Each structure stands twice: as C-alpha cells, then as structure tokens.
C-alpha cells in the first residue's frame, strides 16, 4: 500500500448477544434489542430497522440465516467506522477459528471441550479417518463480505499447523502403530502425516476456491506454530505451507500469536516464500507505560532487519485480553519504536494483537479507534 | 515389584462444571450454585479414583485455573499479571505471575484450593505443586537481582508449602517440572533446579515425586539421580524409551505412557506391554507406577475417564502377572 502504517483487523470480533441468542432460536431481551439498535445507528448500518424487525419475528432457518448476515454487516461497518483500511466480517459466520473449519471436513469428529484458559473452553476434534474436503468452507462469507465493503478484504484462514496441533490424532497414529513401537516416534510420525494431509487435502483446495472467487489476500492463522521446542517443526510447517500455496497467485500473510519467542521461527520461516507479511502479537508483552526508551518484546524486529527479510510486519499494538484502552499516544510510540528497530517503516502494518472476540464491542471499538488514531499520529510524526 | 497407578496434574472439568463456570461468569448462577456443581464433580472424580483402586487419591484441582494461580493468590509477593502465556506446546494458557517481592505463603489462602474431602483419606491423599524452578521460570521477575536468588527463595517458601501439605495429610507430593527439559537446558540451570528442589524437599517425609511432563530427558538421567525424589515421572511421548539410561533403580519410575494429549485410548495390552519393556530395560526396578504422561485436563472429561479406567485395569493386570 502507498499509505504508511495501514491499519488492519486480525480476525474475530465478539458475536453480539442478539446474534448468539437469535441464531439459537432464543428470543432476545430488551437490552439486547437496544444494543442492536444502538450499534445500527452508531455505525450507520443501512436498513438496520430490518434487523430489528427480524429480532422480533418468529424463529425459522431463514430468520437465523438473515440474522447471521446482519451480524456480518454490522461487523464490517464496525471495522470501517473505526477507520481500518483492511477489513473482514469479524468472523461472524464462524463458531470459532478451529471449529468452523474442521466441522465441515470429513475425517474430523468433535469429542468434547478442552480448556483454553480459566473458564474459557474450545471444542476439540479428533481425526478419526482420512481427511476429505468436499466443498468450500469460507467462500460464502468471503463473497458476502466483498459485496458489502469497498475496503481491502483480507480473509483469515486457520493454517495447517494449527489444525494439526489442535486436533487429536487417532487415525494416523493407528495407521502407523505397527511400524513404530516407541510412542514418542509414533506420535511424531503420525503428526507429520496429518500435517501434510491437512495442507494438501484441506488447505490447498480451500485456498484455491477462495482465490478463484477473487480473494486477493489470505491471512494464514498459525497460533500453534511457535509452541514446539524443535526447529524441525518450523521446517515442517514451511514444507507444508509451500505445498499448500505453491503456484497460487494471491497475497498471503501469516499470523502467529502468544509465542514465547518469535525469534525461534527464524531463519527457517523465511523459506516460506509465499508469505509476505508476519502479523505478531506485541502489545501483550509490552508494558503500558509511555515514554520508555526500551520497550519489551520486540526482539524479533532487529533480527528481521539483520536477516534483511524484507517482509511486512503486522504489529500488534493493542492487547486483546485487557479491557484497558490503550491511549493513542502509546500506540504511536509502539509503531515508531518498531519502525526504528525494523529500519523500514514502510513494512509496518498496524493491528490488534489477535482477534478481539473476547472483548465487548464497546471496548473493541475504543481500542480500534485509538489504534487508527495512533497510526495517524505516527504517520504524521514520521513525515515531519 | 510394587505397582502403583495414580493421576498426575489437573483433571478435566465435567461438562456440567464447564457450563456452570460459564453461567457463573455471565451472572446466570450464584457462587453457591457453582460450588454445588463443583463439589458434585469432585465427588464423582474421587469416587472413580477409589473405585479403580488408584494408589493415591488426587485432588482434581477444580478450583485451579492453572498450575500456578493458587500460589499467586496465596504467596504474598506474587501478583497475577494480565499477560496470557502459552503453557508449553498446548493450546492452553496461564496468567503469568509477577514476582514483586520476596514470596511469603498464606496457609489459609492456599488450603482453600483443596477439596476438604481429600484430607479424609490420609493414607491416600496426593497433592500436586510446581517445583520452585518452575514457579520462578513461569513468572516475570521484577524483584530478585538474579535467577539463582529468585529460584532459591521460591524453594524456601515451597518447603513451607510442602510441609504444610504433609501435615494436612498428603501421602504423596508431586512436584511438576515442565520447564527444565522442554528445551535443551543449560548445565547451570539443571544444577540450580536440583539445588532448589532438594532445599524444598529436604525435610519432607511423604513420598516425593518429580514429574517431567513435555520434557525430553535424553542424556540427563545421571543428573536426574540427584533430585531428592523417590519417584521419577517420565513423559514417554517426549522421551524415548531407548534414551533411558543410568536410571537409579532405587527410585520408583512413573511410566507416563497414557497420552493425556490424544483422544486415542490406549489398549490395556499396549500399556502393560510398554510397562513390561520399561521394567525389562531397567532390570532390578522395585517400584513402578502407570500414569498419564501429563495432566488429563488436555482431554475432554469423557475420554479422560476412559483413560482412568484403563489405568486401573493395567495396574490390576501388572500386579497379577
């Protein structure tokens, strides 16, 4: 982009209560109804009165479908209104980044809830059979988003390593059980087989379907990537993603978050030539104090400068697990600090650390508005 | 040969308890109602452990949000940070503690994290705590001038914790040490972890287990001998059996061959067969335990219960040849 420090979403927004309840067929409360009205007005959502009527109508599959579409329209307007240059639909069509993808794929079977942190849980699937992709999963939501915005659209897409890592692996382990007697080796080999099958049989056809339909930017979400202690795992990811994306013409970025140390991804990750941007979480590890001469958690940036990586950086400037709203000036400081370390400001994109799904819309909106204004301030300061 | 079986780490909550914690967070039920569901879930867990004739009765740790939180809450000097950090290579996170002052334990606060029912079976009670090295390494240090003084100070305070739990009736205290061998450690770190561990456990008379979930112990068995523990817990999905050398056979080995991170339920034949291979490799080992490789909380509850049943059956078969 020509603009310095473009601002982008990174994925999910919370689903409004009216969306959650109405989609389940439960009548929404007066408070939830008022919430829908409030945001409809605030975001200038065209024809939002139709949503209000729907929220009072009888439940039916058609009503539920329309409610889901309205929540996507609200989320698109939400991101646009906050001032972002690159948007999506806040993943309003998806249950959750992992579940939404694998539930549509043959071979995966959900087996129950596993804790993410505190009282937050996610549904985890087991691979019980050979993987088989039958139809596009993200296509409808992408086409819908594209229809409702003129901004740049970036499709968040759960990557092969994370799908592998977050799934139990029964099928491939059973298949290799007679070949490897050591449980450590067996598990490792079965994991590799699953990773490459996910890349070839799930990710590649899904990416192809999106690109054929006009997707120009896909963000591969790989929160699990940096969790393994062995460098070999990064190389395996690189091989798998290269196989998945080879020959496909589209911009691809990579989002990794909550890593202990991003430096461990390099230099191996540079071999994934199709990836032109790395979007990482930084605000979570940085202090909220302004005026710091040395900020914490940005060590990967000098390394990328030293490696002459030439990759864009999606800079996480607001924390998605904390309700405190980062001041615009703090966002500005973070951007300028990172720009200095990376030695190339034109490579920096500005975003939240991760999806904002665990924050209320009120908090998310304030955070995003301040993020956009912080980027404006940084742009101004650097050009002076 | 003594054959034991027991749980290691946190237990997964029941689906009812998961729903109740969500309802509580959303203000739909009261704290008393949540507590009722929690106690019922704990009763079910205790009952299953007893029915399966587990050697020790573990607290299922349903009050614990992660391995460290009770210590953050009950150690003055530690505060709960906002930062969520990944728990090793799991899609699970913990709130990183911040060390702001010398740690000092409040017994009253700590004991709130255990179900009173645990202490009714003094011959069987088992508790699980982090090693001092893990407590320090998992935290952000804003107080101690260096790692050594920080880890050793944690060790002194964790000794008080261990003695308190022993006095309450813990027959086995499991110290969880995931940090040391997750990545290849520096020699100085191994020595520091051993010094700290031995300081913590020097006066403990209960059975002491040190457990290394997620850790590859290849090449470190000579050093592991120096941990003052009578049972060594090995994650056999992280350490290969062929790499187990120089094991001190005066100590017991907890064979972590039931995978707490895969839904595939092992067969009893495979588990007993693998335990047999371990025994064969170690020669004159006198004491083994068949255990999960890590906390079962990485599994949905129903699968964890299947694995618990498998553990009970494996123990029975190993005892009766």
What keywords describe this structure?
heterodimer; A: 384 residues; six-stranded parallel beta sheet; 13 helices; 17% strand; B: 321 residues; alpha/beta; eight-stranded parallel beta sheet; 21% strand; globular
Outline the structure in words:
The complex is a heterodimer of chains A (384) and B (321). Chain A is α/β, with parallel strands linked by helices. Chain A contains 13 helices and eleven strands. Chain A has a six-stranded parallel β-sheet. Chain A has a three-stranded mixed β-sheet with strand order 2-3-6. Chain A has a two-stranded parallel sheet with strand order 1-4. In chain A, α3 packs antiparallel against α4 and α9 (183-212) runs parallel beside α10 (231-245). The two termini of chain A are 20 Å apart. Chain B has 321 residues and is an alpha/beta fold. Chain B is built from ten helices and eleven strands. In chain B, the strands form two sheets. In chain B, strands 1-11-10-9-8-7-5-2 form an eight-stranded parallel β-sheet. In chain B, strands 3-4-6 form a three-stranded mixed β-sheet. In chain B, α1 runs antiparallel to α2 (31-51) and α9 (268-282) packs across α10 (301-319). Chain B is globular, with a radius of gyration of 19 Å. Chain A binds chain B through residues 111-119, 121-122, 124, 126, 165-166, 168-170, 173-174, 182-185, 187, 223-224, 227-229, 258-260, 284-285, 319, 321-322, and chain B through 12-13, 15, 18, 21-22, 24-25, 65-66, 82-86, 88-95, 182-183, 236-242, 257, 259, 261-264, 274, 297-303.
Would you summarize the structure shown here?
Chain A is of the alpha/beta class and 384 residues long. Helix content of chain A is 43%, strand content 17%.
């Amino acid at each position: 982009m020509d603009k310095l420090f473009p601002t982008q979403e990174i994925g999910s927004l919370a689903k409004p209560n009216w969306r959650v309840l109405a989609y389940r067929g439960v009548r929404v409360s007066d408070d939830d109804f008022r919430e829908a009205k409030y945001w409809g007005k605030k975001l200038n959502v065209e024809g939002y009165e139709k949503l209000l009527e729907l929220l009072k109508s009888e439940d039916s599959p058609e009503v539920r479908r329309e409610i889901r579409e309205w929540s996507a329209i609200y989320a698109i307007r939400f991101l646009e209104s906050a001032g972002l240059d690159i948007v999506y639909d806040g993943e309003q069509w998806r249950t959750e980044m992992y579940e939404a993808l694998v539930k549509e794929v043959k071979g995966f079977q959900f087996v129950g809830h596993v804790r993410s942190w505190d009282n937050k849980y996610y549904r985890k699937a087991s691979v019980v059979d050979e993987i088989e992709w039958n139809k596009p999963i993200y296509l409808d939501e992408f086409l819908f988003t594209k229809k409702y915005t003129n901004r740049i659209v970036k499709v968040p897409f759960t990557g092969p390593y994370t799908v592998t890592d977050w799934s139990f692996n029964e099928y491939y382990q059973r298949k290799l059980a007679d070949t490897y007697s050591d449980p450590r080796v067996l598990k490792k080999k079965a994991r590799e087989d699953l990773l490459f099958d996910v890349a070839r049989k799930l990710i590649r056809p899904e990416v192809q379907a999106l690109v054929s339909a006009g997707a120009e930017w896909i963000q591969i979400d790989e929160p699990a990537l940096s969790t393994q202690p062995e460098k070999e795992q990064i190389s395996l990811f690189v091989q798998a993603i290269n196989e998945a994306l080879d020959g496909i013409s589209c911009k691809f970025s990579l989002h990794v978050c909550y890593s202990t140390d991003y430096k461990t991804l390099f230099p191996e990750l540079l071999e994934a030539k199709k990836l032109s941007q790395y979007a990482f979480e930084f605000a979570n590890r940085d202090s909220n104090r302004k005026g710091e001469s040395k900020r914490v958690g940005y060590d990967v940036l000098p390394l990328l400068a030293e490696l002459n990586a030439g990759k864009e950086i999606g800079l996480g400037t607001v924390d998605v697990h904390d309700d405190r709203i980062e001041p615009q000036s703090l966002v500005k400081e973070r951007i300028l600090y990172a720009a200095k370390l990376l030695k190339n400001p034109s490579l920096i994109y500005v975003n939240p650390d991760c999806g904002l799904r665990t924050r209320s819309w009120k908090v998310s909106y304030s955070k995003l508005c301040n993020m956009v204004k912080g980027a404006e301030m940084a742009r101004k300061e650097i050009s002076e | 040969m003594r054959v034991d079986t027991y749980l290691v780490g946190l237990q997964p909550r029941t689906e009812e308890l998961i729903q109740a914690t969500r309802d509580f967070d959303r203000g739909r039920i009261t704290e008393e109602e949540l507590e009722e569901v929690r106690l019922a879930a704990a009763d079910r867990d205790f009952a299953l452990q007893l029915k399966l004739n587990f050697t020790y009765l573990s607290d299922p740790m349903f009050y614990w949000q992660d391995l460290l939180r009770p210590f953050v809450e009950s150690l003055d000097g530690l505060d709960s940070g906002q930062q969520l950090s990944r728990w090793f290579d799991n899609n699970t996170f913990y709130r990183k503690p911040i060390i702001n002052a010398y740690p000092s334990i409040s017994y009253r606060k700590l004991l709130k994290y255990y179900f009173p029912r645990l202490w009714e079976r003094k011959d069987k009670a088992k508790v699980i705590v982090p090693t001092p090295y893990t407590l320090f390494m998992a935290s952000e240090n804003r107080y101690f001038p260096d790692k050594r003084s920080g880890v050793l100070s944690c060790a002194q305070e964790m000794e008080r914790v261990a003695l308190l739990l022993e006095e309450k009736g813990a027959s086995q205290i499991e110290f969880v040490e995931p940090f040391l061998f997750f990545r290849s450690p520096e020699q100085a770190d191994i020595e520091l972890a051993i010094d700290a561990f031995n300081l913590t456990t020097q006066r403990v008379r209960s059975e002491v287990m040190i457990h290394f979930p997620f850790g590859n112990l290849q090449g470190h068995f000579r050093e592991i001998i120096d941990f003052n523990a009578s049972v060594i817990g090995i994650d056999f999905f992280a350490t290969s059996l062929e790499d187990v050398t120089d094991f001190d056979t005066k100590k017991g080995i907890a064979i972590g061959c039931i995978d707490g991170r895969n839904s595939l339920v092992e067969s009893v034949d495979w588990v007993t067969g693998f335990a047999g291979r371990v025994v064969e490799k170690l020669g004159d080992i006198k004491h083994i335990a068949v255990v999960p490789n890590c906390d079962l909380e990485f599994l949905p509850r129903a699968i964890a219960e299947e694995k618990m049943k498998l553990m009970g059956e494996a123990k029975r078969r190993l005892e009766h040849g």
